[in-house]
């Protein structure tokens, strides 16, 4: 699947991570955010925020295999928060805009997002509707030529630095899968307010907040695509989000295994290297094997996606497997670090905290299991 052009892209991303992200991670983790506008501007200048986006709006117009190569390499950052925020910009808040938005809307919001001149956020989850997307309560009521928006969104990545939010809101009283629309909402619109940054277990360098909408008025022309098609478009966005998230795990988990090999080789207990214990090196070999299975699954799903096939099942499986391995690999590796693994600034303990989100965000394990079961035709009958 990967050509010389893919390898050149990988090298560009690898160099960016090495020079522009990793030297600053410790500081960004302490302060609870990173300078998204500065980092995104540099990424935009390299063309890395619009790899698959239309060339007419500043993108590179490449197929999704290039985005997967990007996701793998950006995942080598020494934290999960910065790659997460970048993924929100490229694969969560802008795919529907790029695919279904009007030219005027794409000129105004997509082009500057690709250039790194605007920071994007995706507004789906609410305090009472995280996994159950159909249950959202935020309303966008028509008034003249505008929408008037009321409600709130929770756990919004990039919230405090975002220039616009791709918002999922109810725009009618129709059935729950037909009454939702995706609407671009500038964050400087009157009536928007933000909570303080949320104090999270992990992803510390990524700013996250609750967003409140109090009679926020935006033109109806800011609706992406057809009104009422928002739920369907959001489900399509989830496919890229889940593939990106699964791919982003790979290098991070690989680093955990490599760092653990190095540490246990040097760590001595009971007169021998910890790595020399069969239970340790067999376990690390097993974890590496599992990781290769995840990589193969991501690549298979990506190939199918490029061919225009429905990858709901494969993307859900990759998301599920990625989240499970994020828990299993980081937990197992941390154990072999002993007391050092319990230290806050240990790289494996940071991965342990950061990657725990992978079984929750973008569709909890239980949600994607339900999707897989539905595709397999084995959901129990209700009623």
Question: What's the architecture of the largest domain, going by CATH?
Answer: Up-down Bundle
Number of helices: 12
Number of strands: 9
How many domains? The number is 3
Radius of gyration using CA atoms only: 21 Å
Estimated helix fraction: 40-55%
Low-pLDDT runs of 5+ residues are none
CATH topology of the largest domain: Butyryl-CoA Dehydrogenase, subunit A, domain 3
**CATH homologous superfamily heading of the largest domain:** Butyryl-CoA Dehydrogenase, subunit A, domain 3
Summarize the biggest pleated sheet: 4 strands, antiparallel
Order of helices and strands: HHHHHHHEEEEEEEHEEHHHH
The structure class reads: alpha+beta
CATH class of the largest domain: Mainly Alpha
Average pLDDT works out at 96
**Beta fraction of the residues?**
5-15%
Cofactor: FAD
InterPro entries: Acyl-CoA_DH_CS, Acyl-CoA_Oxase/DH_mid-dom, Acyl-CoA_Oxase/DH_mid-dom_sf, AcylCo_DH-like_C, AcylCo_DH/oxidase_C, AcylCoA_DH/ox_N, AcylCoA_DH/ox_N_sf, AcylCoA_DH/oxidase_NM_dom_sf
Keywords: FAD, Flavoprotein, Oxidoreductase
GO molecular function: acyl-CoA dehydrogenase activity; flavin adenine dinucleotide binding
